[in-house]
Amino acid sequence: MKCFPFFLLMVIATLTNTTVAAQITIDLQQQGKPLQPVWAHFGYDEPNYTYMKDGKKLLSEIAALSPAPVYVRCHNLLTTGDGTAALKWGSTNAYTEDKNGNPVYDWHIVDSIFDTYIQRGMKPLAEIGFMPEALSTHPQPYRHYWKPGVKYDSIYTGWAYPPNDYKKWGELVYQWVKHSIQRYSEAEVKTWLWEVWNEPNISYWKGTEEEYFMVDDYAADAVKRAFPAAQIGGPATTGPGWDKAAVWLKDFLVHCAEGKNFATGKKGVPLDFISFHAKGSPKVVDGHVQMNMSPQLKDVARGFEIVHASAYKQLPIYITECDPEGCAACGMATNPENAYRNGTLYSSYTAASFARIYDLADRYKVNLAGLTSWSFEFENQQWFDGFRDLATNGIDKPVLNVFRMYGLMRGNRIPIENNNQIPLDSILKNSVHANSADIHALACADKKSSSVMVWNYYDAAIANDASPVTVTIKNIPAKKILLQHYRIDKDYSNAYEAWKQMGSPQHVTDEQYKQLERAGQLQLLSSPEWINTANGEAVIHFSLPRQGVSLLRLTYE
Fold this sequence. Notes:
There is one protein chain. By secondary structure, the protein is an alpha/beta fold. The chain has two domains: 1-35 and 305-316 and 328-365 and 375-557, Glycosyl hydrolase domain, family 39 (Immunoglobulin-like), CATH 2.60.40; 41-304 and 317-327 and 366-374, TIM Barrel (Alpha-Beta Barrel). The protein has 13 helices and 25 strands. It has an eight-stranded parallel barrel, surrounded by five helices. A hairpin with a 3-residue loop joins strand 18 and strand 19 (449-457). Helix 4 (166-184) runs parallel beside helix 6. The longest helix has 21 residues, at 344-364. The protein is globular, with a radius of gyration of 24 Å. The N and C termini lie far apart (66 Å). One of its GO terms (biological process) is carbohydrate metabolic process.
């Protein structure tokens, strides 16, 4: 075997870690389909955080970032309890029974949750679950007291079991929908989405597949009896990249199309949309976090494939949990791989993965309607403790600014010409572990503006030199344009770095809090700039750091 000189090996190593300059071109005359606001969907386990101080603040910010109504999904809307908030727990006490076994409905906590959404112009994606204690076939133990580091399976208590009376279960759902119409109007409730249960193919459901079909059939029948125009869907199964989850999804679609309805005795079950979940898989490698987008995109691709092959290929698809991994309430103290959540690795991953999911929807010719980021906030926790949240103690994390960028994008999608993108099939197979980063873009335009989101994503949390990027925009219908360049990186739109520069305090002063609030907002890289186009063309040069995201927004008359 030949021995290479040490300096030559160093040159080779340097070259393999060097990113070729990205040349990104878009032609505004090549317009495609409208850019659907699939990103305007968020969710969380703990419904009682909704109306708490930081919960309300964050919901107001989420509502403000989107030109389209934001949909919010949360667990535990029918769980029995006094409304005390805790990690992976929540309750509303919507259903109890008197001493004679008669139903007692109490909607005041559910109303306080939905009121918080409606007041902000948001829409519930109303998850019908979990099982009230009085209806559970195995009610005890019921309330769990899970915390990070405790065995995860301990959360699956009495709320996860089938009902002891399916007719009472159906009547509960019927009364909930009727009450919602009375409180919010038919016109409002018509815009909501109703989804039956969560991940019934794992321990969130302690019954059989057939028993899940039963609980779904009774719920769907109740929703439609109460309000025929309501939109009902499911099955909210885990990622179909797992074979057993794929079987559940297929079986559910066949049951809805051809099976005997357990509630009505007739053929088929109402189904207005399809939902499933998709998750990635980060880990710690050689002392640093390494993301893995491949499992998440494979979940998406397999789910799209199954839907396209079904009787429901035209129905809207909502991926009602779409995240880099599974447990939002597991911080980095117990799960070191979750350290990505505080900084720009989370924001660049989100920009890159959501854009690739648009591409997968095009490939499989399905009707993608929503991608729910299962990330909200956790009240009364340590600052930047590595939970999968959008804000910590009322201070926005960098990832929230990616959604602000998406909220600024309008119009129809524009195809991207890019010499430096990693092919979609390569990311499906290997994520972005290899020698080069994925520097790619998503673009759209309407009559008076165009937007280009560019990211420099790599799986590993390893620093690298910034990469040169050139964005060429052709056929701009104006001689003069206003360029606004927004940026998320170490120095911009990044409250986490600002907090570290303060010394990582767990108790901040009022002035520090104001500084962090400002640092947490989406920031411009430079002042807005007027640019003259040459034959309808503009060429924009900039450097983009590893894990950075830029949004170029051009406006014109």
